[in-house]
Amino acid sequence: MKALHNLLDSVRPHFEEGGKLSKFWVVYDSLETFAFTPGHATKNGVHIRDGVDLKRTMFMVIVALIPALLFGTWNQGHQYLLSIGEITPNDPLMTALWDKLFIGAVKVLPLVVVSYGVGLGIEFLFAGMRGHSINEGYLVSGMLIPLIMPVDCPLWMVALAVAFAVIIAKEVFGGTGMNILNVALTARAFLFFAYPKQLSGEIWIHNVKASADAGLLADGYTGATALGHLASTVGKGLDEPAVTGVMSMFGADGMFSLSNSFLGLIPGSIGETSALAILIGAALLIWTGIGSWKIMSSFLAGGLVMGFLFNLLGLNAYMTLPAIHQVVMGGFMFGMVFMATDPVSAAQTERGKWIYGFFGGFLSIMIRVFNPAYPEGVMMAILFMNVMAPLIDHYVIEANVGKREKRALAAQGATA
Amino acid sequence: MTRTIRIKKGADIRLKGRPSTQVEQASSAPLYAVQPPNYQGIVPKLEVKEGAAVKAGSTLFHSKEHPEVKFVSPVSGTVKQVVRGEKRRILAVVVEADGKNDQHAFASVDPATTDREALVAAVAERGFFAFIEQRPFATVANPTDVPRSIHVSGFDSAPLAADMEVALAGREAAFQTGIHALRVLAGGSNVQLGTKAGQTFFNAIEGVDTFTFEGPHPTGNAGVQIHHTRPINKGEVVWTMHAEDVANLGETLSSGTYCATRVVAVAGSECDAPRHLQTTLGCAISTLVGSVNEEEVRIVSGNPLTGDRTANDGFLGGMHHQVCLLPEGNKPKFLLVDGWLGLGFDKFSLSKSYPTWLMPKSKEFAMDTCNNGEQRAFVVTGQYEPVFPFDIYPVQLLKSIIANDIDAMEKLGIYEVAPEDFALCEYACTSKIAVQSIVRNGLDMLKKELG
């Protein structure tokens, strides 16, 4: 490693002030600090510092995303083969393992590459312009964005969404740590509102439109997600055949059964389908203390409470879906574990985290059921709670301030 | 009757090289220094010139704002040098000891028969206001205030700290006199003492409200103890004093000669024989630690979280009771070996992303002074609160200081805190933010604003 460090040292003068490549100092600096924790010693204040830094923290989140990424890659291949009838739902899951992974990887890897390429490119540009070092924030956002995209989302749309999110949601506020909205969800919301046509129906399973045109599509495959199907039942009577048809897909033997939804064997955004894979990541985040267990558990509680309330009301078919089924579908779990817990955009006080999480989960299910135009309520709910988080914190802190003022008044009363 | 208060928040950083309970006499130092920057909020006005002969207890300089607050020489000898920094700011007044230990003769004072005004004057004249800190602002106490109460912490919970029982052994009478004096200063009573379970030294001490504390660092900080007994409200002033200085005050008052004893813990992983050394305030650091290779080893006067970096030719800080030798962390660390992706079995971390929390509680760590990362904006939340035992929102308070929002600072409770109370927050900070210096700025700003 000495050799690598000597190499870095030897090219250093070119990048420093006055060197030929001084414009690229940010690139050099970020590479060097990536490879070697700099030998900066503490100056004032504490003389010893904890070993943890932002790089390690962010890296842990990436590790937590790996199960969802791997499963998502496999599942895209799985869904494709199912849709063209190459395999049946009754085949063992390991059938054609490598085919599935290959098909998935061919679709997923470009998304990841585009996301990182565009996002980091913009980060480097801003860091260079502003003369600060590259922050680690995008390492996680860059992985989250492809995981919440539909598999057939055109790459140019991903690139555009990333650029929008990084610039508008993050850099204009001052970069990592300063943003109000979750960066990855902003990218998703941008596409949702800017390209609603392209983002509906036929991109959730790879090549589903072409397969349909060629008459290859297996029975029951329309390319819609679970939430898309459910949204179609809203406004119709409970007994209409179209509704009972959809609801039967959510029965024990249906395509979107509880176990399929939990394991993630359903169409959907790349990383969001498997509650199991996401919960493995959640376990790591909670174990290392990097993701807030308070937000995750209250978010889950909020979703379940709303789900139960809907069960009690039972006004339409969507509402009758069991609460537990609601929370393992769509982006709920992914949002709960990886989006709501983003420390920058979430509530920052410990008490505020409980409130923030609960309403996040509550609203996710509410939006999803009430407004069929927004099948994915989680995105809207978390973005809304991002905006509300400072308000929640404000009231939590006001309570603390009030307590202190009361104490001061009591002390004054005692001496007077 | 003592009350036991259990504090859960905080953390004990398990550093290698804890001092043994053995106390040895340090060799007498050729040079001593009184360093004005050690005393917060003081603008020094010299009373001596270079070359002047001084006795132990003779005034070297006084506070510009309160000329009665004197700072005295710990030994007899000649003023060798007045060290100045930028803008001719006085950094140290160095006294070359003559070894005769001539004492400036003060009158002997019995606190029991002295009224408050006379005692304040006597304490100030003998140079002991230097060792009384006040809250709010965490500065040297203002002698014109009458504090609501005076708080003495009976133990130091900082990493590698001196054992107060060892440092004070045999000085019960002096400590008791000091406490009597503090009672008078606080207007008759209202002296609080914070002890921890298992201590015996304070058992027979009278005239104090004693509280027993249990819990990790910073439980030994006066600020934490005050917060959990009688929190400071806006408009109230509380003084704090280190227990060893209380004993020195008692001895000086009753004997009439200036007592500046320091039992210093000399500790740290780079220290050959971590132990306690008895010396005198302001001694040359080399008499405590010898000569070290400054490239490899850092000398810290004070504890590793709040102390000052010093050098082979430096001096023991005025408010310090320990000296630590830590390995310098000035070499790059490769990511996979000992950098940010390493397994980190040798790192003490409060983050569970390192395996510290899985290792036996007896394992001690040799931590170097590496920053272990670069400074970033506030990103991770909820990491300060578990090591900050106050009912105060630390991050929000820091942000109000950064934003120069005096009103918010007051509301969020800045009156109760000193920079040292935030030391563990700074230690734990993922974003490597200079928390203590932000708090110091906030306190200075507030003091300036309120006059």
Describe the structure.
The complex is a heterodimer of chains A (416) and B (451). Chain A has 416 residues and is mainly alpha-helical. Chain A has two domains: 23-35 and 54-225 and 267-291, no CATH class; 292-416, no CATH class. Chain A contains 18 helices and one strand. In chain A, α3 packs antiparallel against α4 (97-130), α12 packs parallel to α16 (332-339) and α17 runs antiparallel to α18. The mean pLDDT of chain A is 88. Chain B has 451 residues and is α/β, with parallel strands linked by helices. Among the domains of chain B are: 27-106, OB fold (Dihydrolipoamide Acetyltransferase, E2P); 371-451, no CATH class. Chain B has ten helices and 21 strands. Chain B has helices spanning 116-125, 164-168, 172-185, 222-229, 243-255, 286-289, 394-402, 406-411, 423-428, 435-450; strands spanning 3-6, 23-25, 31-34, 44-46, 53-54, 59-63, 70-72, 77-84, 90-97, 132-135, 139-140, 149-153, 191-196, 209-214, 238-242, 261-267, 275-280, 297-301, 308-310, 322-327, 333-334. In chain B, the strands form four sheets. Chain B has a seven-stranded mixed β-sheet. In chain B, strands 2-17-16-20-18-19 form a six-stranded mixed β-sheet. Chain B has a four-stranded antiparallel β-sheet with strand order 3-9-8-5, with no helix packed on it. In chain B, α3 (172-185) crosses α5. The longest helix of chain B is centred in the last third of the chain and has 16 residues, at 435-450. Chain B starts with a strand and ends with a helix. The chains are: A mainly alpha (416), B alpha/beta (451). The interface between A and B is large, with 62 and 74 residues.
